[in-house]
Amino acid sequence: MAQTTKYHAKWLAALFLLGSIAACQSTASRTEASTADQAFSCQIKPENREDMPDKVIKTDEEWKSKLTPLQFEVTRNKGTERAFTGKYYNHKGKGIYTCACCGNELFTSNEKYDSGTGWPSFWKPVDNDKIEIKKDFSYGMTRVEVLCKRCGAHLGHVFEDGPEPTGLRYCINSVSLDFEAANAEKEK
């Protein structure tokens, strides 16, 4: 019985992986050439932040002194905050969402939408050069992790079930973010 269960688990994992590859291929085929550089990439990107001249590198002790325990757990140890608990999941302010660790501008309120998942969701980043994506095989799943390219902070994950024009949902932890209100919002 135990061997049968192991066999079924491996078979299901293989099906899930094949489905993920097929989904990546369908996304690539529906992406127009003019937006190819902004499209979701299913390729694993190496952890190489040397192309960002103002990259931030700190020790764990330095991060712990700057961040709350939950921020440290999520951004440095790849944790996840509970759904519907973060300060930005239902936030309606106008402005820029920045990395809580280094201040890198990541997302704008114009690209934020209510995905119903309980986490802040965006259909695109400010600039693809501000984030890094890579395969995440944790917890027996295959997902695509989103990191801050400037400091390597874990932000969340990106999924292919978002609205057009990108079809992407950047599902981001609130504790990974800070918010800078637009000038009109600051004056209110």
From TrEMBL:
Every MsrB domain range: 60-182
Pfam family, one: SelR
Binding of Zn(2+), residues: C99, C102, C148, C151
Name recorded for this polypeptide: Peptide methionine sulfoxide reductase MsrB
GO term, biological process aspect, one: response to oxidative stress
Annotated family: Belongs to the MsrB Met sulfoxide reductase family.
Reactions catalysed: L-methionyl-[protein] + [thioredoxin]-disulfide + H2O = L-methionyl-(R)-S-oxide-[protein] + [thioredoxin]-dithiol
